[in-house]
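Board work, copied verbatim: RDD family protein
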Amino acid sequence: MDTNIYAPPQAEENKLEINFRPLASRWHRLAASIIDSIILVAVTVPIYYLSGLMDQLLDGEVSSVSFLLLSAAISIGSFILVNGYFLVRDGQTMGKKALGIQIVSMTNEPVSATTITKRYGFAIGISYIPFAGSLLSLIDTLFIFSESKRCLHDLVAGTQVVDVQKDEQQTPNLDHTVEEKTE
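↓ predict structure ↓
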């Protein structure tokens, strides 16, 4: 037998690559959301006028199921039209792109279309839950004040939002190699 069972355990050396990227500030995330909202209002309001939904809204006829479904379809469709390509390609909405922040995985890798769909599907989906939607959306948003600066939709999708501008300024210092010993 070549193995001495009485010998002390030997540790294997593993090199872990840590790709550190600074998290986006809460203010940048808020500003990006405001920019996205302004852009979406600019896109959806003309569609509401052309479809006749604005007349129903102004007349107070917003309780019909057809109005709510058409309104949701226009809003979600507009969001996908404006941001879909950039989200899948870069992990950024127009607002995030303007402020230099980006959605990435927890390992700082680009996110897939499936992850983007899960992230925004959760955030948008909970807002359409009758009676509780507004409260659940508020709770989702308030999670930004946790230590990890991640909203509930980030936790569900396994994403985080990082500051790309700071990352580009510090690129040479971000990749670290750490020696880890395992037993």
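Strands lie at 12-19, 101-105, 159-163, 175-182.
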